[in-house]
Amino acid sequence: MAAPATAAAAKGRSAETRRRRLVAAAFLLPALVLLGALVVHPIGYSLYRSLFDRSGSGFVGADNYREILSDGTIRTALTNTAVWVVLAPTTATALGLIFAVLTERVRWGTAFKLLVFMPMAISMLAAGIIFRLVYDHDPDRGIANAVWVGVHDTFAESSAYPKARPGRDSPLVDAGGGAFATRDPVRAGTAVLLPLVGVAPGALPAGAAVAEAAAPAPGKVTGTVWQDFTRGGGGRTNAVDPTESALAGMRVEAVRDGRVVEAATARADGTFTLSAKADGAQLRLPASNFREAYAGVQWLGPALVTPAVIGAYVWMWAGFAMVLIGAGLAAVPRELLEAARVDGATEWQVFRRITVPMLAPVLAVVLVTLVINVMKVFDLVFVIAPGAVQDDANVLALQLYRTSFGTDADPGLGSAIAVLLLVLVVPVMLVNIRRLRKERSR
Predict the structure, then answer these.
(1) What confidence score (pLDDT) does residue 86 get?
(2) Taking 70 as the threshold, does the pLDDT of residue 192 lie above it?
(3) Where in 91-215 does DSSP place strands (E)?
């Protein structure tokens, strides 16, 4: 009787196992159908379509893949993608680590983390629009250039009269290097006229005073620097008219034998006074008087557009890295950190020898996640980079869009770029899967 009972029990277990498998398959079937329809089929079709020409009727084999390597625009996209993969994830992860560690000990750390994480709530499109304005070249609109120009002008102030120049029949001539000098040496006891034109009335400093003709002074060289232009016409050339504006702050140098022997700055009314040292010297208005206003940095120019867009990406994703690393940091045993400090370790040694090694699994998760994310970055580059430099900022995902859906669409080449992008992403995904399996086996 034991044998039939054992056989019946085995048969029952087998039936139960089949039933469970059928139930599991029934639950998995919708997911598998969606996976096949949304992932497997598009991948297979993209691979198939990449072997055909633009129209899809002519088989070209690997020609589309060869064009990827020969096309300069696509090579630029590959290079920029490599720059993105190296810089963006590492920078965002490093900033996230720094923020997580530094905010752990301050009472307002939670508020700071909230502020850093807030950009994650903004879409890539909105972030792109924001940073397109931030990087605007006009300092009155772009905050990046407003700050940069402000710092620059603090140490190297620009001239208020960059367009000023001598007029017709002026006593001033071009002295080279952007400077202007008198034709003849000047003598003590005489008043010198240094007329300039070219400064638009609206470009004069606010509150510019009316120019005054300097009076001669015994043993001294005096003079006036002014805008030799009368609104509405009627003024006299090379003469100080009653309504003409002074060019206050203009530097005047007395030069003899190539050396500056005396210098003065024009007063509010444009007059200046030099000592007897200027007797027999030529007066020169140095080039610093006419230095063009510093316009800032071309953040969205060909040279800096890729780092600028990466900066926008880091602004968005540093908060993501900080939150994950902060969660990992909360799990680090405090006893280890305190023991190291008691043994005399500095904060840097604790950070480098204990905190970072303990956070290595979390850092790997953040880094790999960001690498995969960076591989498919598209909208930030598309929105921030102006059309004139979009080729310089190009990345593979953007090139995929431009090739497949642009005015000169080539679905075959676009499919080849998509397959290339998949090939580049797969190794990173495999590394991530392998790491997850190792963690589960511990």
Answers:
(1) 93
(2) yes
(3) 172-176, 179-182, 191-196
Q: CA-CA distance, 58 to 274, in Å (whole number)? A: 85
Phi and psi angles of residue 430, each rounded to the nearest 5 degrees, phi first: -65, -40
Hey, what are 421's tokens? 């992008």
Angle ∠(253,257,261) on CA atoms, nearest 5: 35
CA angle 131, 309, 42 (to 5 degrees): 110
CATH class, range 63-149+299-441:
mainly alpha
Q: How many CB atoms lie within 10 A of CB 305?
A: 24
Domain-by-domain residue ranges, the chain?
A: 63-149+299-441, 172-290
Torsion over CA: 143, 147, 152, 154 (sign)? positive
pLDDT tens digit string along 350-379?
A: 888 888 888 988 998 899 899 989 988 998
Query: What Cα–Cα distance (Å) separates residue 381 from each residue in 151, 303, 441?
Result: 28, 15, 40
Going 57 to 58 to 62 to 65, the CA torsion angle's sign is negative
Evaluated on CA atoms 59, 60, 61, 64, the torsion sign reads: negative
d(Cα 145, Cα 295) in Å, to the nearest integer? Answer: 8
Phi and psi at residue 291, to the nearest 5°: -65, 130
232-270 b/e (C-beta count within 10 Å ≥ 16 → b): eeeeeeeebbeebbbbbbbbbbbbeeeeebbbbebbebb
pTM, two decimals, is: 0.74
Q: pLDDT tens across 412-429, in order?
A: 998 999 999 888 888 888
Q: Which residues contact 97 (CB under 8 A, 6 or more apart)?
A: 321, 322, 325, 356, 359, 363
How far apart CA 330 and CA 372 sit, in angstroms, is 26
- 422 closest CA partner among 397, 395, 391, 405: 397
